[in-house]
Amino acid sequence: MYCHFLGDIIYGNVPGCQVFRRTRFVVRKVLKTAKKSSSLKKATPKKAVKAKSKTVSIKKTPSSKRTAPATRILIVNYEFPPLGGGGGVAALDLAREWAKHAQVDVLTSSFKDLPRSEKVEGINIYRVRVLFRRSRDAASFISMLSYLFFGFFKGMSLAKKNRYTVINTHFAVPSGPLGYIIGKLFSIPNVLSLHGGDIYDPSKKSSPHKSIIFRTVIRIILNRATRVIAQSSNTRGNAITYYKPKKEIEIIALPFHPPVIPKTKRSDLAVDKNDFLIVTCGRVVKRKAYDVLIHALFEIKNPRVKLAILGDGPERKNLEDLANYLGLHDRVRFMGFVSEQEKFSFLNVSDLFALTSLHEGFGIVFMEAMFCGKPIVCTNHGGQTDFLFHEQNALLLDVGDIKACAEYISRFMSDKKLYSRCVTQNKKKIRDFYADRISSEYMKVFNEIRKRN
pTM score, two decimals? Predict the structure, then answer.
């Protein structure tokens, strides 16, 4: 049903779309007529005005040069902080930079007591009603579908009022159809940003790449976008392999804003000074495969090796049961949802960052660990392989390889030379992803589109 609905919208079979198309046609007619009449008025010669006995001619003031209209960007993303994961954080980091010299509006989902509209750091955030979203960390199928429905009406209102220069749509689904429709109805260029999990998620039976219908819908979304940008070569490769788009797909990495790291002592976080602390963070979902990390910890018999899991999600109870079953209740800490300050406090006092995901489209958490100068243990499947290299700034293992994970953690404990090399390389490499550089790459794309139009 969802796919048929998407197809109807894309092909203009929804009555509302036809009405808005006719409305747009009428508006254009009116604007053309108004433009002609105004040009005729300008063309009529100006007569001299008689004032008593004198003839006074009106002097023509030199027409000032028209300044180019300010850039106005609409970000369409069903998740935006504090909701969601890396895709929302990336959108926020881009918006922060663009808002310094442009109008930036965000069309996203509401949740509980979050305000329906607010201005944060110069960014106008508009949240639309969604149904049956029960968690900050994960969206339900119904919530994504309802975002399309309610987002359509709010998006139309915003586009009509602001006449955007460009739309930046994040995620092929569910945001993709919404960004496409608004762009189509108002003739606004639509730049689609792919985040990996929206087109390929090996942990889900419902992953779009496994469905013929979804593959067809996403192929249409890709082909009808003005430009398509993938965050990594892995995401680009998956898009080409499973969806075979005619449109060329570019690569622009995700942005990173250097945070201000709070000065925190281990004792403030109930961490013993003699512990070797491993930190991992992200949504607690199956794709993250935290069970592999917990099993690897079981293989390491040193009781001083501890694990802190920062984040929350539907898999937390299963993982807590696993840790208790393996007798690791005193070595694994489930911190739940934490603030940005708490997250960086833990990263800063940790010894190692580890993430054993089945797949990562890119992985902003890796950049956060790199900035904090931590060596990394992670899997070799995903976008992180664009910037994490085995034995240089990380140790990479095959997906699901528990023994290798345990071995690599132990290596970082014993091999001080390797540890130091990875720390140095990560502190240096992270500068390539600073948000001002990445946002300017997007702005180049926007300006190229603007010149062509």
Answer: 0.81
